[in-house]
Amino acid sequence: MSSSSSSSLSNTRSQTVGIPTTCWCGSKLTTYGAQTKENLFRRFYRCKLGIHRKTEHHLFKWVDEAIVEEVNMVDAKHNQLKEDVDSFKIYTTQHLEKQAIQFDKALIQLNSLIVDKDTSSGTNENSTIATKDTVQSPNQPSDANNSRAQLINIAVAAIAVGTMAWIYAKITN
Ligand SMILES: [Zn+2]
After folding, report:
1. pTM for this structure?
2. Which residues surround ligand 1, an ion (CB under 5 A)?
3. What number of CA atoms fall less than 13 Å from residue 163's CA on the CB side?
């Protein structure tokens, strides 16, 4: 916390962070070269009024200091953005993994239901595979099972649509 220069205007400085665009009086800022021995030709921001009315308090800021502040601000924003993207990646990956597991489960159930139906209708060449698969589920082919399979389909589709909508909302934010 050491003041960098012995400017008489130091009490009015550091009230804006980064590169200033307008003075407190509302005037546009211009850059000027300092004429003092300490800071010869060092650029600073000042409005036209401030240059002419030296007793009034108008914005004063060294250009190099303003640029350093601006770069720091951009860095901070960049880091924040990176953190956001990283956490978004982690969340999306976890979310998609969960979806994939649910989808696999639904597919297995659906598959077993289809195999059940095939075995009940009698005409099948791959009965050995069918019986192997049907061991997993209770062997009760019915309309209830069919509607359940349809519900699973709808649920999977809804989850997929929800995921896409969520990703889209997150990206466009
Ligand atoms: Zn001004």
Report:
1. 0.51
2. 23, 25, 27, 47, 49-50, 58
3. 18
**Rounded to the nearest whole angstrom, what is the distance from the C-alpha of residue 20 to the centroid of ligand 1?**
12
User: pLDDT tens digit string along 82-141?
Assistant: 999 999 999 999 999 999 999 999 999 988 988 887 777 655 555 455 454 544 555 555
DSSP classification of residue 27? P
How much distance in Å is there from the Cα of 136 to the middle of ligand 1? 81
Tokens of 26: 């509302």
The residue among 87, 86, 132 whose CA lies nearest residue 112 is: 132
Domain extent at residue 113: 78-172
Evaluate whether 56 touches 101 at the Cβ level (below 8 Å).
Answer: no
The DSSP H or E segment spanning 68 is: helix 63-121
CA angle, residues 126, 130, 133, in degrees to nearest 5? 145
pLDDT at 2 (0 to 100): 43
Residues 158, 97: one domain? Answer: yes
The alpha carbon of 53 and the centre of ligand 1 are apart by a number of angstroms equal to: 9
Number of domains in the chain: 2
